[in-house]
Write a structure and sequence with these properties.
Number of domains: 3
Shape: elongated
Structural class: alpha+beta
Order of helices and strands: EEHEEEEHEEEEEHEEEEHEEEEEEEEEH
Strand content: 35-45%
Length: 381
Amino acid sequence: MKLKRLWILAIVFAALHASAGEITDSMRKYVEPGLPAKIQTLTCPENAEDTKNLFWCTGALVDDRWVDILAKRKPDQSIEVIDLIYYPPTAKALASAARKGVTSDFRSVDCPHDAGVNKTQFECRAVLLDGSRLTMRAERFFQRIATEPFIWDPASPSPLISMLRSAAPEGTIESVICPEDLAGTFDCTVHYTDRKPASYTVRHDGNAFTIVADLQRQHERYHVIGAIAIGVGVFLIIGAAAWLISLNIGSVVAHLPLAAEQTVELPEAGSYVLHIELPYFTWRPRLQYAMTDASGRDVPMHFDILPTHSSFAKVRHSVRLFSVNAGGKYVLRTGDVPPDRDVSQWGLIVTRSFMLRGLLCVLMIVAGALTVLAGVVFFTS
């Protein structure tokens, strides 16, 4: 935006701190003689102390030019004008600020008379030299104008809008929204009256516009991929959980009471797991587990790396792993059972070892969860 600046040096005038109205009247009285036109409207803050005695007034001249005044209240309550800027009329200022967002120069810009003066946010309608029409929404700040993405008439002959109109799916197009800067790569959205919007990534190489990505179709593909991934992930989780439950149930060889010494019959040679089963929230006792075969030889027992399994009513703790060379009867010893505890709900369970299959189930559940997470990311993209 090309600004016309008028630097006012050493303009100091007395002003009371009573109210914003008196400040505004004083500013109008002492600043207006140096302006190219009379002030139409001017607004100053109510309390300069809120901004550390620096404040600015905004307004407009009778010829629709904006004016911004930066001032400072001095310790003696006088006010010094630090900077005074007056802009071109609203339409001209907006056309200058918005030039990077259009494909040709402006033929006309039509703004409300009080645009940016009584209302900081305003909307203007513009026509380009090639006949394209668009709506521009902007907001006035001190010494600048901020614009929102432009809303183009879909019938505009602009090469950008023509290209998007040709690429868009069939339907009644309501508007095309593109950013306020058409340099490099940017996104535009085609809005319909009877269907979902279609978005495109466009590249401008300085001479022509090209579509580099159909965001709507890309989003649809992402939705399909995401839905498939979620379905596969849920299937993996459910399948692995069901398999793990069946392994827990089908691998049980013997249910035993908790006793200091008892006989357990194992059906065949192989690896087994000894569990202690307790009600929820029950302290697990420290018992000395040992096993011997029919000839009295010790059966080596080892700690389990996956020590805990839960059921609906009880918690099953894996306490030992062991292997036998042949099926038959074995003597299981647990040492002294705590005499002061009610162990009627406690028990021992011997199961076949399914460590590798159990780990595979866990890995499947983790993989399923990660697949579901990836699917959600794709689906919401």
